[in-house]
Every structure is written in structure tokens, then in C-alpha cells.
């Protein structure tokens, strides 16, 4: 379900509600009038009133507990634990959560523009900055694999956009995991059309029509596991369990890249596509529980302002020193005397 965390077909909707908070006699009340949604932005906060409110809330000390969140109807959710207990507290409700998410994306047009909710124009900028981030991480971390045998995992691969435009340029083999059948079928058709000048396939790609929360990476198979715009559909418990499985699936020196929408604080629950946009602190807490360490962190730039911020995290299984790439020093040489 990659390119996930947004909406799809029904790109415009209305939301009416008043958000109120009172702290030390200070009362803030803002009414959200409307918003746009897209898969690259899950409840993208495109309604300016909501963004303004979120910006104001950090000004007042004690204005919001760090763990507090909102749903897409403007209702306050006191803690993440309350949210997950409410929506996935037993096995039946957990299954319904995942089924509704898959059903939502099964109704979306199986194209780049479709999975990006009409924001297909951001794909180029997204890939450019992802490529720079991945290249920098590969240069400094240097997985042990020989260049001709490097393998990547594309989680929530959607129609194969990231594999086609990014991963196939760095890895000899890519596994794509995607739970929505119509999306992965398009990925299969599209990626199998990529041939080199001699008519042979340039890279090997493998397809798995499987939910991420159920996928078990083969032991020590991957140099890089790429997770983008899909982890918001997983419960906290399933995120941590997947991190633990993913660690076992990494080769020596391998790493995970998580690229995801990030809320300013707390979390935002999208009740239409059944996903959660987490804050940076929320993510870092999950990384810690999953035994992962942030090696590099960078923010995506150049996206429309109405979208959530998008952050890129390079995650390793061991604490590693961040190495800055240095430019070659200029050697002093004798000048030519004229």
C-alpha cells in the first residue's frame, strides 16, 4: 500500500468541528472548515485552520500532553494506548482495522497519480531527495554485499513507483511487498517492461501480495529495507514486531530507511483509510522499542505546504557514528611562474 497515508478517490471532503483547549486561563477555539486528502498525506492537514491550531498549541506550555492526538473528525484522543485499545483492542477489531484499510486502497485508481491522491507531480521531487539520502547512507554505512548481489525490500510497494524510480538503480534485486492485489498487479506489468538495450531484463524483481504485518523477511537477505508511506496502517505492536523481524532480515551492515509523514506532535488518526500519522517523538519511541537506532535523519523539502512534513530516517541495529562525507582536499601545488 505504498504511497499510503492519504486518501485516494474521494479527494475532497468537508469537516466541521471546533477544537478547544484551555490552559491557565488561555482558551483557543478554531473551526476547521474543509480539507483535501491524498495518499502522500493521509489526513494531510491541508485545512489551514487545523495547521494554525497545531502551530499555536506548542506556544502554550502544557497546552497538550505529548501523547495526545486527534482523529479526522476533530475529536481528542487522550493517549495512543486509548486509541489502539478502542480500534484494535481484540483480534476481531484488529482484523477489521486492516481489512478496512485494504478495502479503502482497493478502490483507488492503480496509478502513480491515484496512489498519490492526485499529487503525482510530487513523485519526481520525492525520488530525487530519496536518492540523495539513500546514496549518502550507502556511502557511509557500506553494506558487506558485493555490488552485483545487493538486494532491497520495498515495503508497501503500491504500483512499484519507488522500486522503478529508485531501488532498481541501486540494487540488483528487489522484493516488493504489497497487500492490495490490483496495485501489485500493475507493478508486475510495469516493472516487467523494463529492459536494457540488449532486450534483457535489467534487474530481478519479486512480488509478494502480502500485508506488511504478516511478512517475514528471509534471514540475512536484504542490504536495505525501504519503508515509505505505509507504516501508518500498522498498529504500534505490529510496527515493533515488524522491526524485530526486519532486523533478522538484514545482511551484515544493512539498514532500514523509513520515509513517512510526521505530525507536529502526538498523532492524527484517519478514520477513513484507517491509518495513523505519528510525531517524530512517537516514531523514535517505536524505534527504541524495536531495537533500532537513528543513524541519519533528514526532512523532505519542496512538497506543497498543505501536506504533512515528511521525514527520512536511516535506522541501524547498532549505534554507529554518523560519518560526514568530506570533499577531497585540494593539494597545494607550485604555481606556474609566467
TrEMBL record:
GO biological process terms, semicolon-separated: methylation
Catalytic activity: N-terminal L-prolyl-L-prolyl-L-lysyl-[protein] + 2 S-adenosyl-L-methionine = N-terminal N,N-dimethyl-L-prolyl-L-prolyl-L-lysyl-[protein] + 2 S-adenosyl-L-homocysteine + 2 H(+); N-terminal L-alanyl-L-prolyl-L-lysyl-[protein] + 3 S-adenosyl-L-methionine = N-terminal N,N,N-trimethyl-L-alanyl-L-prolyl-L-lysyl-[protein] + 3 S-adenosyl-L-homocysteine + 3 H(+); N-terminal L-seryl-L-prolyl-L-lysyl-[protein] + 3 S-adenosyl-L-methionine = N-terminal N,N,N-trimethyl-L-seryl-L-prolyl-L-lysyl-[protein] + 3 S-adenosyl-L-homocysteine + 3 H(+)
Any one GO molecular-function label of the UniProt entry: N-terminal protein N-methyltransferase activity
The keyword Transferase is assigned to this record: yes
Alphabetized SUPFAM superfamilies for the sequence: S-adenosyl-L-methionine-dependent methyltransferases
Superkingdom assignment: Eukaryota
Keywords carried by this UniProt record: Methyltransferase, S-adenosyl-L-methionine, Transferase
Pfam families the UniProt entry points to: Methyltransf_PK
EC number: 2.1.1.244
Flavoprotein as UniProt keyword: no
TM segment ranges: none
Family: Belongs to the methyltransferase superfamily. NTM1 family.
Function in brief: Alpha-N-methyltransferase that methylates the N-terminus of target proteins containing the N-terminal motif [Ala/Pro/Ser]-Pro-Lys when the initiator Met is cleaved. Specifically catalyzes mono-, di- or tri-methylation of exposed alpha-amino group of Ala or Ser residue in the [Ala/Ser]-Pro-Lys motif and mono- or di-methylation of Pro in the Pro-Pro-Lys motif.
UniProt name for this protein: Alpha N-terminal protein methyltransferase 1
Amino acid at each position: 500500500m505504498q504511497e499510503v497515508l492519504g486518501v485516494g478517490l474521494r479527494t475532497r471532503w468537508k469537516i466541521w468541528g471546533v477544537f478547544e483547549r484551555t490552559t491557565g486561563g488561555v482558551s483557543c477555539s478554531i473551526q476547521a472548515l474543509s480539507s483535501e486528502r491524498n495518499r502522500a498525506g493521509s489526513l494531510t492537514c491541508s485545512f489551514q485552520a487545523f495547521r494554525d491550531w497545531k502551530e499555536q498549541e506548542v506556544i502554550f506550555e502544557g497546552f497538550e500532553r505529548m501523547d495526545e492526538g486527534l482523529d479526522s473528525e476533530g475529536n481528542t484522543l487522550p493517549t495512543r494506548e486509548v486509541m489502539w485499545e478502542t480500534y484494535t483492542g481484540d483480534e476481531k477489531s484488529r482484523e477489521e482495522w486492516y481489512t478496512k484499510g485494504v478495502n479503502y486502497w482497493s478502490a483507488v485508481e492503480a496509478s502513480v497519480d491515484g496512489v498519490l491522491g492526485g499529487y503525482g507531480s510530487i513523485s519526481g521531487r520525492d525520488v530525487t531527495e530519496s536518492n540523495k539520502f539513500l546514496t549518502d547512507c550507502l556511502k557511509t554505512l557500506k553494506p558487506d554485499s558485493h555490488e552485483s548481489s545487493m538486494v532491497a525490500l520495498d515495503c508497501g510497494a503500491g504500483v512499484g513507483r519507488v522500486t522503478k524510480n529508485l531501488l532498481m538503480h541501486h540494487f540488483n534485486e528487489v522484493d516488493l511487498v504489497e497487500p492490495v492485489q490490483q496495485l501489485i498487479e500493475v507493478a508486475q506489468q510495469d516493472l516487467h517492461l523494463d529492459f536494457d538495450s540488449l532486450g534483457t531484463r535489467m534487474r530481478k524483481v519479486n512480488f509478494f501480495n502480502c500485508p506488511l504485518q504478516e511478512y517475514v523477511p528471509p534471514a540475512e537477505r536484504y542490504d536495505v529495507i525501504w519503508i515509505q508511506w505505509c507504516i501508518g496502517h500498522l498498529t504500534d505492536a505490529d510496527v515493533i514486531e515488524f522491526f524485530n523481524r526486519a532486523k533478522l532480515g538484514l545482511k551484515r551492515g544493512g539498514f532500514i530507511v523509513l520515509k513517512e509523514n510526521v505530525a507536529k506532535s502526538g498523532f492524527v488518526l484517519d478514520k477513513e483509510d484507517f491509518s495513523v500519522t505519528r510525531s517524530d517523538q512517537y516514531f523514535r519511541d517505536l524505534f527504541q522499542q524495536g531495537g533500532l537506532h537513528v543513524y541519519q535523519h533528514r526532512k523532505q523539502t519542496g512538497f506543497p505546504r498543505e501536506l504533512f512534513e515528511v521525514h527520512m530516517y536511516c535506522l541501524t541495529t547498532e549505534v554507529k557514528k554518523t560519518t560526514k562525507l568530506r570533499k577531497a582536499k585540494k593539494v597545494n601545488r607550485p604555481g606556474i611562474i609566467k
